[in-house]
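hey can u run this one w/ magnesium ion bound, need the C-alpha coordinates asap thx
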Amino acid sequence: MILNSAAINFVIPIGVCNCLLAQLDLDFNRIAPSIPYILGGIWITLKFTLLSAIFGFIWGTVLSLFKISSIKPLYWFGMAYTSVFRGTPLLVTLSKIYFDTPQLTGYEISGFQAGVITFSLNSGAYISEVIRAGIMAVDKGQTEAAMSLGVSYKPMMLDVILPQAIKNILPALVNESIALLKDSALVSTIGATDLLRRAQIVGAEKYVYFEPLLIVAVVYYLMVMSLTLSANLLETQLRKSS
Amino acid sequence: MQEKGAIAIKIDRLYKSFGSLKVLRAISTEIAKGEVVALIGPSGCGKSTFLRCLNLLETPTSGKIYINGQEITDSKTDVNKIRQNVGMVFQHFHLFPHMNVLKNIMYAPVKVNNLSKPEARSLAMDLLQKVDLVDKADVFPSKLSGGQKQRVAIARSLAMQPDIMLFDEPTSALDPEMVKEVLDVMQAVSESGMTMAVVTHEMGFAKEVADRIFFLDGGEIAEDSPPDVFFSHPKSARAQKFLAKIL
Ligand SMILES: Nc1ncnc2c1ncn2[C@@H]1O[C@H](COP(=O)(O)OP(=O)(O)OP(=O)(O)O)[C@@H](O)[C@H]1O
Ligand SMILES: [Mg+2]
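ok here u go:
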Protein backbone atom coordinates (compact mmCIF):
# COMPACT_ATOMS: atom_id res chain seq x y z
CA MET A 1 0.00 0.00 0.00
CA ILE A 2 2.61 2.45 1.14
CA LEU A 3 4.92 1.52 -1.67
CA ASN A 4 2.14 1.91 -4.15
CA SER A 5 1.13 5.40 -3.17
CA ALA A 6 4.75 6.48 -3.19
CA ALA A 7 5.02 5.28 -6.75
CA ILE A 8 1.90 7.14 -7.72
CA ASN A 9 3.17 10.29 -6.11
CA PHE A 10 6.24 9.98 -8.17
CA VAL A 11 4.48 9.35 -11.40
CA ILE A 12 1.85 12.04 -11.27
CA PRO A 13 4.19 15.06 -11.47
CA ILE A 14 5.90 13.59 -14.48
CA GLY A 15 2.58 13.00 -16.11
CA VAL A 16 1.55 16.60 -15.46
CA CYS A 17 4.80 17.85 -16.91
CA ASN A 18 4.45 15.84 -20.07
CA CYS A 19 0.92 16.96 -20.47
CA LEU A 20 1.91 20.63 -20.04
CA LEU A 21 4.74 20.37 -22.52
CA ALA A 22 2.45 18.72 -25.02
CA GLN A 23 -0.01 21.58 -24.71
CA LEU A 24 2.70 24.23 -24.75
CA ASP A 25 3.64 23.94 -28.39
CA LEU A 26 5.71 27.13 -28.48
CA ASP A 27 5.49 29.03 -31.71
CA PHE A 28 7.71 32.04 -32.02
CA ASN A 29 7.12 32.35 -35.76
CA ARG A 30 3.83 34.11 -35.29
CA ILE A 31 5.43 36.90 -33.31
CA ALA A 32 8.80 36.93 -35.06
CA PRO A 33 8.13 40.21 -36.94
CA SER A 34 7.26 41.85 -33.61
CA ILE A 35 10.35 40.73 -31.73
CA PRO A 36 12.44 43.79 -32.67
CA TYR A 37 9.59 45.97 -31.46
CA ILE A 38 9.52 44.15 -28.13
CA LEU A 39 13.27 44.31 -27.74
CA GLY A 40 13.13 48.03 -28.48
CA GLY A 41 11.55 48.26 -25.02
CA ILE A 42 14.90 47.33 -23.50
CA TRP A 43 16.13 50.83 -24.24
CA ILE A 44 13.04 52.42 -22.67
CA THR A 45 13.34 50.22 -19.59
CA LEU A 46 17.04 50.90 -19.22
CA LYS A 47 16.71 54.63 -19.76
CA PHE A 48 13.92 54.68 -17.26
CA THR A 49 15.90 52.73 -14.68
CA LEU A 50 19.06 54.76 -15.19
CA LEU A 51 17.32 58.13 -14.88
CA SER A 52 15.41 57.03 -11.81
CA ALA A 53 18.56 55.62 -10.24
CA ILE A 54 20.53 58.82 -10.81
CA PHE A 55 17.80 61.19 -9.60
CA GLY A 56 16.93 58.81 -6.77
CA PHE A 57 20.55 58.70 -5.69
CA ILE A 58 20.93 62.49 -5.67
CA TRP A 59 17.64 62.98 -3.88
CA GLY A 60 18.45 60.15 -1.48
CA THR A 61 21.78 61.78 -0.63
CA VAL A 62 20.05 65.07 0.12
CA LEU A 63 17.42 63.30 2.24
CA SER A 64 20.08 61.37 4.15
CA LEU A 65 21.78 64.66 5.02
CA PHE A 66 18.42 65.97 6.24
CA LYS A 67 18.06 62.92 8.42
CA ILE A 68 21.41 63.37 10.13
CA SER A 69 20.90 67.13 10.37
CA SER A 70 20.69 68.84 13.74
CA ILE A 71 18.12 71.20 12.19
CA LYS A 72 14.87 69.71 13.47
CA PRO A 73 12.47 70.66 10.62
CA LEU A 74 14.81 69.08 8.06
CA TYR A 75 15.12 65.99 10.21
CA TRP A 76 11.37 65.65 10.59
CA PHE A 77 10.77 66.23 6.90
CA GLY A 78 13.28 63.50 5.99
CA MET A 79 11.73 61.06 8.43
CA ALA A 80 8.12 61.78 7.45
CA TYR A 81 8.96 61.62 3.76
CA THR A 82 10.58 58.22 4.07
CA SER A 83 7.75 56.92 6.17
CA VAL A 84 5.13 57.97 3.60
CA PHE A 85 6.94 56.45 0.63
CA ARG A 86 7.73 53.25 2.47
CA GLY A 87 4.16 52.98 3.66
CA THR A 88 2.34 53.28 0.33
CA PRO A 89 2.34 50.84 -2.59
CA LEU A 90 4.42 52.06 -5.50
CA LEU A 91 1.56 51.49 -7.91
CA VAL A 92 -0.60 53.87 -5.89
CA THR A 93 2.05 56.63 -5.89
CA LEU A 94 2.58 56.09 -9.59
CA SER A 95 -1.11 56.44 -10.39
CA LYS A 96 -1.45 59.47 -8.12
CA ILE A 97 1.35 61.29 -9.91
CA TYR A 98 0.21 60.26 -13.37
CA PHE A 99 -3.44 61.15 -12.93
CA ASP A 100 -3.15 64.06 -10.47
CA THR A 101 -0.49 66.09 -12.27
CA PRO A 102 -2.72 67.15 -15.20
CA GLN A 103 -5.55 67.89 -12.81
CA LEU A 104 -3.43 69.98 -10.46
CA THR A 105 -1.11 71.73 -12.90
CA GLY A 106 -2.74 71.35 -16.28
CA TYR A 107 0.41 69.74 -17.59
CA GLU A 108 -0.21 66.58 -19.61
CA ILE A 109 2.46 64.39 -18.10
CA SER A 110 3.61 61.38 -20.13
CA GLY A 111 3.71 57.91 -18.64
CA PHE A 112 7.47 57.92 -18.92
CA GLN A 113 7.83 61.23 -17.09
CA ALA A 114 5.41 60.23 -14.36
CA GLY A 115 7.33 57.00 -13.98
CA VAL A 116 10.73 58.66 -13.66
CA ILE A 117 9.37 61.14 -11.13
CA THR A 118 7.65 58.49 -9.04
CA PHE A 119 10.56 56.09 -9.08
CA SER A 120 13.09 58.83 -8.29
CA LEU A 121 11.01 60.05 -5.36
CA ASN A 122 10.46 56.51 -4.16
CA SER A 123 13.97 55.19 -4.48
CA GLY A 124 15.19 58.45 -2.92
CA ALA A 125 13.35 57.40 0.23
CA TYR A 126 14.96 53.95 0.29
CA ILE A 127 18.41 55.13 -0.74
CA SER A 128 18.38 57.83 1.92
CA GLU A 129 18.05 55.14 4.58
CA VAL A 130 20.93 53.20 3.08
CA ILE A 131 23.17 56.26 2.81
CA ARG A 132 22.27 57.41 6.30
CA ALA A 133 23.35 54.05 7.70
CA GLY A 134 26.52 54.30 5.60
CA ILE A 135 27.34 57.74 6.95
CA MET A 136 26.74 56.65 10.54
CA ALA A 137 29.10 53.72 9.99
CA VAL A 138 32.01 55.99 9.03
CA ASP A 139 34.36 56.40 11.98
CA LYS A 140 33.60 59.56 13.96
CA GLY A 141 37.33 60.24 13.93
CA GLN A 142 37.08 61.09 10.22
CA THR A 143 34.70 63.94 10.96
CA GLU A 144 36.89 65.13 13.81
CA ALA A 145 40.05 64.98 11.71
CA ALA A 146 38.41 67.04 8.96
CA MET A 147 36.96 69.52 11.46
CA SER A 148 40.29 69.90 13.24
CA LEU A 149 41.81 70.96 9.91
CA GLY A 150 39.24 73.72 9.62
CA VAL A 151 37.33 72.01 6.79
CA SER A 152 33.72 73.20 6.71
CA TYR A 153 30.67 70.95 6.62
CA LYS A 154 30.01 70.75 2.89
CA PRO A 155 33.49 69.76 1.65
CA MET A 156 33.87 67.49 4.66
CA MET A 157 30.74 65.60 3.67
CA LEU A 158 31.45 65.55 -0.07
CA ASP A 159 35.16 64.75 0.02
CA VAL A 160 35.70 62.84 3.24
CA ILE A 161 32.55 61.23 4.61
CA LEU A 162 30.34 60.39 1.59
CA PRO A 163 33.06 58.66 -0.48
CA GLN A 164 33.72 56.33 2.44
CA ALA A 165 30.05 55.84 3.19
CA ILE A 166 29.17 55.03 -0.42
CA LYS A 167 31.98 52.55 -0.78
CA ASN A 168 30.57 50.64 2.19
CA ILE A 169 27.02 50.64 0.89
CA LEU A 170 27.74 49.89 -2.75
CA PRO A 171 26.18 46.41 -2.60
CA ALA A 172 23.01 47.87 -1.11
CA LEU A 173 22.89 50.53 -3.83
CA VAL A 174 23.19 47.89 -6.53
CA ASN A 175 20.38 45.92 -4.95
CA GLU A 176 18.28 49.06 -5.03
CA SER A 177 18.97 49.53 -8.76
CA ILE A 178 18.01 45.93 -9.39
CA ALA A 179 14.77 46.46 -7.54
CA LEU A 180 14.27 49.59 -9.61
CA LEU A 181 14.83 47.70 -12.85
CA LYS A 182 12.28 45.08 -11.91
CA ASP A 183 9.74 47.53 -10.52
CA SER A 184 10.05 49.57 -13.70
CA ALA A 185 7.61 47.11 -15.26
CA LEU A 186 4.92 48.95 -13.31
CA VAL A 187 5.05 51.87 -15.76
CA SER A 188 3.40 49.60 -18.30
CA THR A 189 0.19 50.28 -16.39
CA ILE A 190 0.25 53.99 -17.27
CA GLY A 191 0.99 53.61 -20.95
CA ALA A 192 4.76 53.89 -21.14
CA THR A 193 5.88 51.49 -23.85
CA ASP A 194 8.54 49.63 -21.88
CA LEU A 195 9.44 45.97 -22.36
CA LEU A 196 6.40 44.56 -20.60
CA ARG A 197 3.93 46.92 -22.25
CA ARG A 198 5.28 46.07 -25.71
CA ALA A 199 4.91 42.38 -25.02
CA GLN A 200 1.32 42.97 -23.97
CA ILE A 201 0.60 45.02 -27.08
CA VAL A 202 2.01 42.32 -29.33
CA GLY A 203 0.11 39.68 -27.36
CA ALA A 204 -3.16 41.51 -27.83
CA GLU A 205 -2.57 41.90 -31.55
CA LYS A 206 -1.61 38.32 -32.25
CA TYR A 207 -3.67 36.62 -29.56
CA VAL A 208 -0.55 34.97 -28.13
CA TYR A 209 0.74 35.90 -24.74
CA PHE A 210 2.98 33.05 -23.75
CA GLU A 211 5.82 33.70 -26.16
CA PRO A 212 6.13 37.48 -25.92
CA LEU A 213 5.97 37.35 -22.13
CA LEU A 214 8.54 34.56 -22.06
CA ILE A 215 10.89 36.69 -24.15
CA VAL A 216 10.37 39.61 -21.80
CA ALA A 217 10.98 37.48 -18.69
CA VAL A 218 14.22 36.18 -20.14
CA VAL A 219 15.36 39.69 -21.09
CA TYR A 220 14.63 41.02 -17.58
CA TYR A 221 16.51 38.12 -16.09
CA LEU A 222 19.54 38.72 -18.31
CA MET A 223 19.58 42.42 -17.47
CA VAL A 224 19.39 41.75 -13.73
CA MET A 225 22.12 39.13 -13.99
CA SER A 226 24.48 41.39 -15.89
CA LEU A 227 23.88 44.15 -13.34
CA THR A 228 24.64 41.73 -10.52
CA LEU A 229 27.77 40.45 -12.20
CA SER A 230 29.18 43.87 -12.98
CA ALA A 231 28.44 44.90 -9.40
CA ASN A 232 30.39 41.92 -8.11
CA LEU A 233 33.27 42.86 -10.36
CA LEU A 234 33.21 46.44 -9.14
CA GLU A 235 33.17 45.26 -5.55
CA THR A 236 36.23 43.07 -5.93
CA GLN A 237 37.94 45.95 -7.70
CA LEU A 238 37.14 48.30 -4.83
CA ARG A 239 38.24 45.77 -2.26
CA LYS A 240 41.57 45.49 -4.02
CA SER A 241 42.08 49.24 -3.98
CA SER A 242 41.53 49.52 -0.23
CA MET B 1 56.22 87.45 15.29
CA GLN B 2 57.00 85.05 18.10
CA GLU B 3 57.86 87.70 20.69
CA LYS B 4 58.89 86.09 23.92
CA GLY B 5 56.28 85.96 26.58
CA ALA B 6 53.31 86.61 24.28
CA ILE B 7 50.27 84.58 25.26
CA ALA B 8 49.15 81.89 22.79
CA ILE B 9 46.32 80.40 24.83
CA LYS B 10 44.49 81.97 27.73
CA ILE B 11 41.83 80.02 29.57
CA ASP B 12 39.48 81.71 31.97
CA ARG B 13 37.32 79.63 34.33
CA LEU B 14 36.62 76.85 31.84
CA TYR B 15 33.86 74.45 32.83
CA LYS B 16 32.78 71.38 30.88
CA SER B 17 30.05 68.95 31.88
CA PHE B 18 28.51 66.00 30.09
CA GLY B 19 24.99 65.97 31.50
CA SER B 20 25.46 65.78 35.24
CA LEU B 21 29.08 64.66 34.96
CA LYS B 22 31.30 67.63 35.73
CA VAL B 23 34.53 66.90 33.88
CA LEU B 24 36.33 70.26 33.97
CA ARG B 25 35.80 72.73 36.80
CA ALA B 26 37.02 76.29 36.68
CA ILE B 27 40.26 75.75 34.81
CA SER B 28 42.21 78.97 34.38
CA THR B 29 45.69 79.16 32.92
CA GLU B 30 47.86 80.73 30.29
CA ILE B 31 50.23 79.12 27.80
CA ALA B 32 52.92 81.28 26.25
CA LYS B 33 53.87 81.21 22.59
CA GLY B 34 56.38 78.47 21.86
CA GLU B 35 55.70 76.72 25.14
CA VAL B 36 55.27 72.95 25.29
CA VAL B 37 52.82 71.73 27.91
CA ALA B 38 52.46 68.06 28.81
CA LEU B 39 49.07 67.07 30.21
CA ILE B 40 49.14 64.08 32.47
CA GLY B 41 46.73 62.56 34.91
CA PRO B 42 44.72 59.44 35.69
CA SER B 43 42.42 57.92 33.07
CA GLY B 44 39.10 59.70 32.77
CA CYS B 45 40.29 62.87 34.51
CA GLY B 46 39.41 64.99 31.48
CA LYS B 47 42.70 65.38 29.59
CA SER B 48 41.12 64.74 26.19
CA THR B 49 38.14 66.89 27.03
CA PHE B 50 40.44 69.76 28.00
CA LEU B 51 42.40 69.45 24.77
CA ARG B 52 39.27 69.17 22.64
CA CYS B 53 37.87 72.36 24.17
CA LEU B 54 40.90 74.21 22.80
CA ASN B 55 39.83 73.62 19.19
CA LEU B 56 36.14 73.48 20.02
CA LEU B 57 35.65 69.82 19.18
CA GLU B 58 33.91 70.05 22.55
CA THR B 59 31.85 73.12 23.33
CA PRO B 60 32.75 74.46 26.78
CA THR B 61 29.82 74.60 29.18
CA SER B 62 31.05 77.97 30.41
CA GLY B 63 34.22 80.01 30.64
CA LYS B 64 36.36 81.73 28.07
CA ILE B 65 39.23 80.61 25.87
CA TYR B 66 41.41 83.10 23.99
CA ILE B 67 43.77 82.10 21.20
CA ASN B 68 46.29 84.74 20.20
CA GLY B 69 44.13 87.23 22.04
CA GLN B 70 40.91 86.33 20.21
CA GLU B 71 38.07 84.88 22.22
CA ILE B 72 37.10 81.61 20.51
CA THR B 73 34.26 80.83 22.89
CA ASP B 74 32.40 83.89 21.61
CA SER B 75 29.39 82.65 19.65
CA LYS B 76 30.28 84.99 16.79
CA THR B 77 33.69 83.49 16.05
CA ASP B 78 34.14 81.41 12.92
CA VAL B 79 35.02 78.02 14.36
CA ASN B 80 36.64 76.82 11.15
CA LYS B 81 38.95 79.84 11.06
CA ILE B 82 40.09 79.06 14.62
CA ARG B 83 40.66 75.40 13.83
CA GLN B 84 42.82 76.24 10.82
CA ASN B 85 45.24 77.74 13.30
CA VAL B 86 45.09 74.96 15.89
CA GLY B 87 46.20 71.58 14.60
CA MET B 88 45.27 68.33 16.30
CA VAL B 89 46.85 64.89 16.25
CA PHE B 90 44.79 61.95 17.46
CA GLN B 91 45.64 58.70 19.17
CA HIS B 92 44.20 56.72 16.26
CA PHE B 93 45.60 58.94 13.48
CA HIS B 94 42.33 59.28 11.53
CA LEU B 95 44.02 59.58 8.16
CA PHE B 96 41.59 59.69 5.24
CA PRO B 97 41.69 56.07 4.04
CA HIS B 98 40.51 56.84 0.48
CA MET B 99 43.32 59.33 -0.22
CA ASN B 100 46.98 58.52 -0.60
CA VAL B 101 49.55 60.08 1.71
CA LEU B 102 50.16 63.09 -0.51
CA LYS B 103 46.44 63.78 -0.95
CA ASN B 104 45.90 63.47 2.80
CA ILE B 105 48.37 66.28 3.35
CA MET B 106 47.33 68.41 0.37
CA TYR B 107 43.60 68.21 0.97
CA ALA B 108 43.09 70.91 3.61
CA PRO B 109 45.60 73.42 2.20
CA VAL B 110 43.85 73.19 -1.19
CA LYS B 111 40.25 73.12 0.12
CA VAL B 112 40.58 75.50 3.03
CA ASN B 113 43.54 77.76 2.28
CA ASN B 114 42.92 77.82 -1.49
CA LEU B 115 46.48 76.87 -2.31
CA SER B 116 47.02 75.80 -5.91
CA LYS B 117 47.68 72.09 -6.44
CA PRO B 118 51.39 72.60 -7.27
CA GLU B 119 51.87 74.84 -4.24
CA ALA B 120 50.18 72.33 -1.97
CA ARG B 121 52.17 69.51 -3.49
CA SER B 122 55.51 71.15 -2.84
CA LEU B 123 54.39 72.06 0.70
CA ALA B 124 53.37 68.43 1.27
CA MET B 125 56.63 67.10 -0.10
CA ASP B 126 58.60 69.44 2.20
CA LEU B 127 56.64 68.14 5.17
CA LEU B 128 57.11 64.53 4.09
CA GLN B 129 60.81 65.28 3.99
CA LYS B 130 60.60 66.53 7.58
CA VAL B 131 58.82 63.40 8.80
CA ASP B 132 61.09 61.24 6.65
CA LEU B 133 58.38 59.67 4.50
CA VAL B 134 59.03 61.05 1.03
CA ASP B 135 59.05 57.54 -0.41
CA LYS B 136 55.51 56.92 0.86
CA ALA B 137 53.90 59.88 -0.92
CA ASP B 138 51.82 57.71 -3.29
CA VAL B 139 50.93 55.01 -0.80
CA PHE B 140 47.50 54.60 0.82
CA PRO B 141 47.32 54.82 4.62
CA SER B 142 46.32 51.16 4.99
CA LYS B 143 49.78 50.21 3.76
CA LEU B 144 51.61 52.18 6.48
CA SER B 145 52.80 51.12 9.92
CA GLY B 146 51.31 52.87 12.96
CA GLY B 147 54.35 55.07 13.41
CA GLN B 148 54.29 56.06 9.75
CA LYS B 149 50.58 56.83 9.93
CA GLN B 150 51.10 59.09 12.90
CA ARG B 151 53.95 60.92 11.18
CA VAL B 152 51.73 61.50 8.16
CA ALA B 153 48.99 62.75 10.49
CA ILE B 154 51.43 65.23 12.01
CA ALA B 155 52.48 66.38 8.55
CA ARG B 156 48.81 66.74 7.55
CA SER B 157 48.22 69.00 10.55
CA LEU B 158 51.37 71.03 9.96
CA ALA B 159 50.32 71.61 6.35
CA MET B 160 47.76 74.12 7.61
CA GLN B 161 50.68 76.01 9.16
CA PRO B 162 49.03 76.32 12.56
CA ASP B 163 50.40 78.36 15.47
CA ILE B 164 49.35 75.74 17.98
CA MET B 165 49.41 71.94 17.89
CA LEU B 166 47.39 69.67 20.15
CA PHE B 167 48.38 66.03 20.58
CA ASP B 168 46.04 63.53 22.27
CA GLU B 169 48.08 60.49 23.27
CA PRO B 170 49.86 60.39 19.91
CA THR B 171 51.91 57.30 20.77
CA SER B 172 49.43 55.28 22.82
CA ALA B 173 48.22 53.19 19.91
CA LEU B 174 51.71 52.38 18.65
CA ASP B 175 53.89 49.33 19.03
CA PRO B 176 56.74 50.18 21.40
CA GLU B 177 59.38 50.18 18.68
CA MET B 178 57.54 52.93 16.80
CA VAL B 179 57.09 55.32 19.69
CA LYS B 180 60.47 56.93 19.30
CA GLU B 181 60.14 57.87 15.63
CA VAL B 182 56.95 59.79 16.45
CA LEU B 183 58.37 61.43 19.56
CA ASP B 184 61.41 62.52 17.55
CA VAL B 185 59.17 64.25 15.03
CA MET B 186 57.24 65.93 17.84
CA GLN B 187 60.46 67.10 19.41
CA ALA B 188 61.55 68.58 16.09
CA VAL B 189 58.20 70.36 15.83
CA SER B 190 58.64 71.79 19.32
CA GLU B 191 62.12 72.99 18.46
CA SER B 192 60.69 74.93 15.53
CA GLY B 193 58.98 77.13 18.11
CA MET B 194 55.51 75.57 17.94
CA THR B 195 53.17 76.06 20.88
CA MET B 196 52.13 72.55 21.90
CA ALA B 197 49.77 70.86 24.33
CA VAL B 198 50.43 67.14 24.55
CA VAL B 199 48.42 64.54 26.43
CA THR B 200 50.89 61.76 27.03
CA HIS B 201 51.89 58.78 29.10
CA GLU B 202 55.47 59.09 27.89
CA MET B 203 57.09 60.50 31.00
CA GLY B 204 60.48 60.54 29.33
CA PHE B 205 59.13 62.83 26.62
CA ALA B 206 57.38 65.01 29.19
CA LYS B 207 60.59 65.37 31.20
CA GLU B 208 62.77 66.11 28.23
CA VAL B 209 60.63 68.18 25.86
CA ALA B 210 57.92 69.86 27.94
CA ASP B 211 58.39 73.26 29.53
CA ARG B 212 55.51 72.68 31.91
CA ILE B 213 53.56 69.77 33.27
CA PHE B 214 49.84 70.09 33.92
CA PHE B 215 48.68 67.39 36.29
CA LEU B 216 44.92 67.12 35.84
CA ASP B 217 42.86 65.58 38.57
CA GLY B 218 39.32 66.07 39.81
CA GLY B 219 38.52 68.35 36.90
CA GLU B 220 41.24 70.84 37.83
CA ILE B 221 44.88 71.48 37.08
CA ALA B 222 46.00 70.05 40.38
CA GLU B 223 49.59 70.92 39.69
CA ASP B 224 51.38 73.14 37.18
CA SER B 225 55.17 72.92 37.42
CA PRO B 226 58.29 72.60 35.34
CA PRO B 227 59.10 68.92 34.73
CA ASP B 228 62.16 68.74 36.97
CA VAL B 229 60.14 70.10 39.89
CA PHE B 230 57.10 67.96 39.11
CA PHE B 231 58.96 64.68 38.82
CA SER B 232 61.28 65.23 41.81
CA HIS B 233 59.07 67.13 44.26
CA PRO B 234 55.41 66.86 43.34
CA LYS B 235 53.52 69.22 45.63
CA SER B 236 50.11 67.60 45.85
CA ALA B 237 49.48 64.26 47.48
CA ARG B 238 47.45 63.18 44.44
CA ALA B 239 50.36 63.80 42.08
CA GLN B 240 52.68 61.92 44.44
CA LYS B 241 50.34 58.95 44.42
CA PHE B 242 49.99 59.10 40.61
CA LEU B 243 53.74 59.22 40.09
CA ALA B 244 54.35 56.41 42.57
CA LYS B 245 52.02 54.27 40.47
CA ILE B 246 53.54 54.93 37.06
CA LEU B 247 57.26 55.40 37.73
N1 LIG C 1 30.99 62.85 24.69
C1 LIG C 1 30.94 62.46 25.99
N2 LIG C 1 29.74 62.22 26.56
C2 LIG C 1 29.66 61.85 27.85
N3 LIG C 1 30.72 61.69 28.66
C3 LIG C 1 31.94 61.91 28.16
C4 LIG C 1 32.11 62.30 26.79
N4 LIG C 1 33.43 62.46 26.56
C5 LIG C 1 34.06 62.17 27.72
N5 LIG C 1 33.17 61.84 28.68
C6 LIG C 1 33.48 61.51 30.08
O1 LIG C 1 34.24 62.57 30.60
C7 LIG C 1 35.28 62.08 31.43
C8 LIG C 1 36.61 62.59 30.93
O2 LIG C 1 36.89 62.00 29.68
P1 LIG C 1 38.24 62.25 28.90
O3 LIG C 1 38.17 61.46 27.66
O4 LIG C 1 38.46 63.71 28.78
O5 LIG C 1 39.30 61.63 29.90
P2 LIG C 1 40.85 61.37 29.67
O6 LIG C 1 41.55 62.01 30.80
O7 LIG C 1 41.23 61.78 28.31
O8 LIG C 1 40.93 59.80 29.84
P3 LIG C 1 41.88 58.76 29.10
O9 LIG C 1 43.21 58.83 29.76
O10 LIG C 1 41.20 57.46 29.34
O11 LIG C 1 41.93 59.14 27.65
C9 LIG C 1 35.17 60.56 31.41
O12 LIG C 1 34.47 60.17 32.57
C10 LIG C 1 34.37 60.29 30.18
O13 LIG C 1 33.61 59.12 30.36
MG1 LIG D 1 41.82 60.75 26.53
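Residues B 18, 21, 23, 43-49 surround adenosine-5'-triphosphate (ligand 1) (CB under 6 Å). anyway lmk if its weird
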